[in-house]
Each structure stands twice: as C-alpha cells, then as structure tokens.
Amino acid sequence: MTSEGPVHEHLRFDGSPYANKYKEKTAEHTAAADRLREEDRRRAVELGKRLVELEEARERAARSATVSRAVVELHWEAALEALWSESWLKLQPKPRAATGADATPLDRLDDELARLAHLDAELARRSEALHAALHRSRWSLRMRRG
C-alpha cells in the first residue's frame, strides 16, 4: 500500500501517459464537482430567501382570508337584519365560498388601497395648507362698510 492507496505491485503508473491522463480527468471532475457544490450553495441561499418571501406572502394571504371571512359574515348578518322584517321574502342560508377563486385581484386591490391612502394623506395635507392660507390676514375677505 502506498500513500495514494492500494496499488498492485505489477501495476506501475508513475510517468505513464495513462496515469497523467487519469490525473487530468480526476482533476477536471474534482473541479466540476467543486463548481457544482458552489452553485448548489448559492442556489440554496436564493431558495432560502425565496422561501422566506413565500412564507410571508402565505401569512399575508391567511390574514387577508381571515379578514375577508369576517367581513363577509358581517355583511351577511347586516343583510339578514335589513331583510328580517320582509315576511314575504324567503331568507336563504349564506352561500358557500367559491373555491379556486383567483386572489390576484385582491393583491392588486391591496396595492391600490395603499396608493390611495398615500394620495388621501397628501390631499389632506394640501387641504390643510390651503385652509391655513385662506385664513391668514392677507387672504381673508374684508367687508366694506359704506
């Protein structure tokens, strides 16, 4: 046995072109395996980040679903209360939720709601500034006596 592993006495690879070719191929395969391991590490980091993003999105969706169910329940109760006195109207049980509905419009509506909230805040700020400007002495209306 040598430092390179078990070698049969009748096989000598030192200086052989086959041994050199074997060493070259082994080095190429080792380098390729190292590159693959490094790419796997990078990909694992990317996938870990993506997993966190997806988990956060799932949690937002779950909260949104809970709020939506509560809102639907409140609206249904309000509708029943509004129609309770109508004795001629046959009240039906609440319909079942549609399964498989596309949530994408809700995401867009959430984004739009955030944008509108920002615009509303800006409008309030400008309205206050205009109100303050109109009530300053130089802009106030003076009544003439005469």
How would you characterize the overall build of this protein?
- The protein has 146 residues and is mainly alpha-helical.
- It folds into two domains: 1-101; 102-146.
- Helices cover 67% and strands 0% of the residues.
- It starts with 16 loop residues before the first helix and ends in a 12-residue tail after the last helix.
- The mean pLDDT is 82.
Short description:
This protein is an all-alpha fold and 146 residues long. The protein has helices spanning 17-83, 104-134.
Topology at a glance:
Layout: H1 17-83, H2 104-134
Radius of gyration: 37 Å
Order of helices and strands: HH
**Major sheet:** none
Instruction: State the helix count.
Output: 2
Class from secondary-structure proportions: mainly alpha
Whole-number average pLDDT? 82
The tally of domains stands at 2
What is the end-to-end distance? Answer: 124 Å
**Roughly how much helix do the residues carry, as a percent range?**
55-70%
Shape: elongated
Oligomer category: single chain
How many E strands? 0
Low-confidence stretches: none
Query: Approximately how much beta-strand content do the residues carry?
Result: under 5%
